[in-house]
Each structure stands twice: as C-alpha cells, then as structure tokens.
Amino acid sequence: MRTNTGTIEFKFERTIPASPGEVFDAWLNPKIPGNPWNAAEKFILDPKVDGLFYWTLNGVSHYGRFTEIGRPVQIQHTWMSPRTLGQESIVTLTFKKQREDTLMTLVHSGLPDHELARGHEKGWNYFLDIFPGQFGNGSRKEQ
Amino acid sequence: MDQLTDVLTAISHPTRRAIIGQLANGPARFSEVAKPFDTALNAVTKHLKLLERAGLIERRKQGREVFISFRGEPLREVAGWVHEYERFWNRRLDQFEQYFKDKKKKEKKK
Predict the structure, then answer these.
(1) Backbone dihedral region of B73: left (phi > 0), alpha (psi from -120 to 50 degrees) or beta?
(2) What is the value of pTM for the model shown?
(3) pLDDT (tens digit, 9 = 90+) per residue, A18-33?
(4) Cβ separation of B75 and A36 shorter than 8 Å?
C-alpha cells in the first residue's frame, strides 16, 4: 500500500468589530461563543507555549499543544482528533488591525489526506461534476 | 483499515478514478473496463480489488457474464469528512463574529 504525505488546508477570514487585543483574548476565553472551547462539554485549556488543551463534544475528543502565543497578533496550536487520523494538524490564527476592526484569519493545515491534497479542488470538482446528487448540500470555499 | 481509509486509498490513484468515471456511466464487463488502459490486465484487476474493498464498485453476475457497477455511497462519507472541518470552523467563526456584532450594538444603544 502506498503511503502518502499530502495534506489539506482550509483558510477562513472574518472581520471582527473590535481591536486585535480584544479578539485575541476572546478567542482564548471559553465563555465567549464561537471559540472551540465554548461549545465543549468538558475542556482543559492552558494557553501558553507548550500548554495543552483538551475538549470534547458529542463524545469526540480533541487535543492540542500551543506552539505560539503572540498577543495580539498570532495564536498557533496543534490539533488532533479522530478525524486527523492520529496525526497532528496545525491551527494558526492571525489578528490584523483594519481601521476600527480586526481581520481574523484562521488556517487549519496539515489535515491528513492522500492525493486529495494537491488535487483537492480538481478532485472534488471532478467528483461533483460526474456524481451530482451523490454529495450533500455542503458548499466549499477553498482558498 | 476503516472504510474511510479504504475509500481515500481507492480514489488516490488516477487509474482508479478513471475507472470510477467510466463506471459512473453505467455497469461494464471487465474487458470493457480494462480496454482504455494501457496497462496489464493483472494491474486492472488489482485496481478493481481496491475499489471493491472500498465499496465503490460491486460485481454482479448476469448469466455467464460478470458486470461491474459503481456505488457512490462511500464517497459521501469522504465528502462528509472533508467538509466537516469547513463546517465546524465556519460555524464557530460565525458565532464568534456575531458575538462581537451584538456586543457593539449593545454598546451603541447605551
């Protein structure tokens, strides 16, 4: 069997009406809706370099290690769950001031994949083209 | 291996994707499946075995002939897996953004 080192990467951007510092702090505050820890049934969060986190939702556990905490510019941590097939993926958040707002970018990279990574867009368009109706109604916004 | 891994392995090879594309048009005999490929029949057999293990094709006997047909069901699991992260982060970020928008509205009202 052929082993493969390809990965998938997702990139998301949001403009948040607050300063980078406020947004940065809110992301690491489990009381604020929207961050991964807020929805958890149980969580452990130690947001410092080499600090660990754990959270579980619907019986699915997620683990990670903070690799960069640079208030108010960047947060980076690893991300492992059953969906990463036992491999460490990387989540990087950047906060950039834009006038009165903050441009928040989240990149989830290193998600294990096979050949889908490099031919992802091509591959899925290919499948979506030839198998209409085989897929759900999800939409993709690859960048 | 779990089925998701089997499916990802099966669709990772261009020849197997071409076979799927071919079978998406309708069931075919082995000789028809093998015809477009400039490769040994043994290699085609191996590709078909991987597709079958992933549940992407099935063989059906009709009289003395065996027809191979495409099954799309396992691809949904792959699509769900790929999309799950996108859905997850979009949901979380939408909530996060909304929290700040609501907060700003409240502050304006004061």
Answers:
(1) alpha
(2) 0.57
(3) 999 999 999 999 999 9
(4) no
